[in-house]
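dumping the sequnces here before i forget
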Amino acid sequence: SWGRVRNELLKNVGKTNFTTWIEPLNLIGVTDGIASVEAPTKFMRDWVSRNFGEPILRELRASGLAVERIEFQVPDLRPIPATEVSRPAVPARKPAAPIRTGDDELPGAPLDARFTFDSFVVGKPNELAHAAARRVAEGGPVSFNPLFLYGGVGLGKTHLMHAIAHELYTRRPDMRVLYLSAEQFMYRFVQALRDRQIMDFKGMFRSVDVLMVDDVQFIAGKDSTQEEFFHTFNALVDQGKQIVISADRAPGEIKDLEERIRSRLQCGLVVDLHPTDYELRLGILQTKTESYRVQYSGLKMADGVLEFLAHRITTNVRVLEGALTRLFAFASLVGKEITLDLVQECLTDILRASDRKVTIEEIQRKVAEHYNVRLSDMIGPKRLRTIARPRQVAMYLSKQLTTRSLPEIGRRFGGRDHTTIMHGIRKIEELMVSDHQLTEDVDLLRRLLES
Ligand code: ADP
Ligand code: MG
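..and the predicted 3d for all of it:
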C-alpha cells in the first residue's frame, strides 16, 4: 500500500517534488499508530517533515492505515518525533507547472508544461534526436515514419515528445495530436475490449494526424496489445500520418516483440539519445540555475559548484535536476551561500550513490541473461526454483553492489517486501557455503557488473 500512497502523492505534489522529496522515502512500518518513514539524510528528513508531512499523513490514512502520526527518521539515527506537523518555515516549492491535456476529444496523457523545446538543452549526445523532433514538430509532410527515439532513463525522450506536442498545438491547431504511454495504450485497449467498444477505439486511434507512444518496450510480450498496436501503426502509416515512438532500447534489442513490429519500427528514422556528457550536464545545470535564481532571489552560489555537480552526477538528468532542486531548497532554508561544503552536506546520498555506477536494472538484466530467464521474471511473481534462484542472486548482488536499502531493492523487484529481499539474500549466502557452482556464478556476475 506504500506504492499506492506514493502514487497518490505523485498526483498531489507534482513530478519534480515527487522525485526530489518523496521517492527517496521508505515506509519502514506502522506500530501503535506511528508510521516510521525513513529519509536518506537529516536535511531531507526535516524538509519532508515540514513540507510534506501533512499530505503523507493524509494519504497513509486514505490507504486505510490507522496512523496517528509519522516519525521521520534517518538511517542510524534515533528517530525524532514529528508530533505535530509544523507550518513550513519557508514556502514549499510550488507544485510543478500546471499540466494540461491537449485535444479534449482524444484520450491522451497530460503534457508537462515545462517540457518544451525552449527548455531543452542541446548537446552532442542529443542533437540528432532534437533535430528530428524539431522536424516532426514543424507539422509538414512526413519525412520519416516512424521517428523512433531511444535511450536510457532520464535522457529526455519524454521531454522531446511533449515538446513536439506543445509545438504542434500552437503551430497546427488543426492537427489531431495524440500523446500517450504504451501502458495507457494497453489500458485503453483492454477497456475497449471489456466494454465492447473496440470499433470506437480503432476509429479514434486511426483518426489522429500525429500519434506518439512513449516507452513502447512496455507492450513487449503482451500479445493482443501488440497485435492491435501493429494494426493501428499500419493504418496510420498507410494514411501518411506521423508516428513517434520512444523506448528504452533499440528496436532490435526489445525482447518479446513480434518480428513484423520490430521491422516496422526500424524502417523509419531510429535515433539514439546518448548518455549525457560533461558539457551537456553543465549546460542543463546552468539553464536550471537561471530559473532558480529568479525563484530564490538573493541566493549566492560559489564558483565551481555546477562544475562539480556536472562532473560527479553522471547517471541521468532527472537525478541531476533533483540534486539542484534540493540544493537550492536547502540553501534558502539555512540562509547560506551554496558552496562545495554545503553540497557535500546536502547531497551525501546522491554523491555516494553515484560513486558506483551499477544499477539494479543492470544487475537484473545481466543475471537474467546469465541464467537464461526473462528479465520480466526478475520482478514477476513466479516461484519456480529455476526462476526464484536467479532472482535471489540478483537481490544479493543488488545489496552488494549498490547503496540501495532493502525496501528500495524490494520496490525494484516488483514491489516485494524488504523481508522477502532479506530472505533472498540470506538464502544465497547460505547456499554459497556449499554450492561452488553458485559461488562461481555470483563472482563472475560481480566481475561483469563491476567492469
Ligand atoms: P526519459 O523520458 O528519457 O526517461 P525525461 O524526458 O523524462 O527522460 O527527462 C527527465 C528529466 O530530465 C526531465 O525533467 C527533463 O526535463 C530533463 N531533461 C532531460 N534531458 C534534458 C535536456 N537536454 N535539457 C533539459 N532538460 C532535460
Ligand atoms: Mg520517459
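The two ends are 37 Å apart (CA to CA).
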